[in-house]
Amino acid sequence: MPNAFGAVVRRSRLTMGCHTPRRFPYTTPPELRGAVGGLHQVVIVGAGPVGLAAAIDLAQHGIHCIVLDDNDVVSIGSRAICWSKRTLEIFDRLGVGERMLAKGVTWQVGRVYHRDQELYSFNLLPERGHKMPAFINLQQYYVEEYLVERAAELEGLIQLRWKNRFLGLEQRDMSVGVKVDTPDGPYRLETRWLLAADGARSAVRNALGLEFKGEEFEEKFLIADVRTATDYPSDRRFWFQPTFDPSESVLVHRQPDDVFRIDFQLGWDADVDVEREPGRVSERVHHVLGREARFEVQWCSIYTFRCARLGRFVHGRVLFAGDSAHVVSPFGARGGNGGIQDVDNLCWKLALVAQGRAPRALLESYNLERVHGSDENIRHSRRTTRFMTPKTVAERQLRDAVLALARDFPFARTLVNSRRLSRPCSLERFAGTVASGNGVAGPMAPGMPCTDAPVMFSGQRPGWLLETLGGDFTIVIFAVHSTDAARRQAELRAGGLRLPVRVIVPAAAAGTAENMESVLCDVQGLAGERYGGGPGVTYLIRPDQHVAARFAIFDPAALAAAHASTIAWNN
Amino acid sequence: MPYLTHLRTDDGFGGEEDEVYAALLAAHESLTDSQSAALNARLVLLLANHIGDLSVIREALSAARASVLRNLETQ
User: What's the pTM value of the predicted model, to 2 decimals?
Assistant: First the structure.
């Protein structure tokens, strides 16, 4: 099963008293029970977070998919634990966000230490009025469980085939032939599209013989998941050169079920065989939790890492997402979050193309946009590594100077790179309709992921703006009166544009709100503030909750043109 | 010398050049070599932040680097 660390965990992997992993039943596939195999819409290889999220996203667009996984179990060990706000918003669109939020440990404060002194702390979400927090920590096995259960709700659209191992493929003009192995023997599938979500060691990538270029980093890390009852805080804590342990750095994250992720930077010369000994691991954990602490090491691993990506993420009818397309260091939670953002970007495009509602060229925008996102992650990864592992005397002097100054001067804190955290990727340079952004103030330029805001639905039901966006293209109109809503919708229909519309009215207009689904009341004025939403300001929002275009005045013809050009990818 | 368009290279001290130089020396007084190196690193960061302008900083760095490399050649 693919996972965020799969890319990088090598040399050793030992598991001691793990979370009991959830298993899923294998059943003989219909093709081996005499059924005649047809032409399938999408086959996904890999039932990790990326493959499962893709299946759900596609199914929500009405696309049938088959998910193949060579295993029958969720991830062993917590692996990806840190889910960002943007990822949670995507998961919310897929129907598992609230469950993740309820179970996960919410945190937004990080503390940075040098030796035994706290240098500073930071708050990742200082602003009110967002449904999702900056980050939650939640073990990957929970995320996979929730996704499997959500996929079951979409039965009829998603077939999860456990213990079905991808063996090979043949690309044809109109389809892909896939060879699969099972406990009952091999069989073949024919599909229009194949999505490779099979992780860092992707069998699909190998089958196509694609080059996976990158660079290796000379540093070793020990990660341990430790269960202990303690009132240790939820804040993320990071030490440069801690006094309590010989590591170069230590990072501690709290997960649900009283589990802590502790990450020790061992140095390149560390002896893996010594460091992996249970007694040695326990000793280090005692350094962090204290001499008297009682704990159980649930999972631990020594890893090195590399950054690499495919030259392209689209190869004919074979598409790559997540670790099969790109691997980064685990710094800053870029693996799992990057993979889910691939899914968000790809699935609406693949659905439109599969349904014949968009030209195949639209998939090229997935390639360009996510190669850009992946490069951004790799660049951050490289910079963090450079900061954490100074290679020369001069590099170390500058690094230590930054840490020393950070205690007293805010400017130096911006230079401290204690595994800078994943942020949503802006697609501004790809937006097809940037010119139409003229005349609207505020940060929500075309290409930006939409910012959330609290709203009131009809019937005085409180909710969130992002809950009303995504899935399909959506038009958001800022208006003075709720009575404008019906008129605007009629004008759009007359112009031939049949898309969902949200009309946002100020709090003062709430009293006049008709009982209309499409009218949202800007109860705290934050939607207007964040979107520069004066009367008439109109946004076209992509199915992945990114701004496609914005206009200072409501103009159905311009909206229709922007919609057409975004789908046709003719820029 | 690299071609400089952003970095000021004429006399910017306004008649206080000797005071500035003396202040630089005084800052290093009674420090060990490694403390002096640490001071220089901090000073660079403080001044770089004060300047803020990446194009100025880049030119200052390339001028300094070129000067070091040229000295090496002539040694």
Answer: 0.91
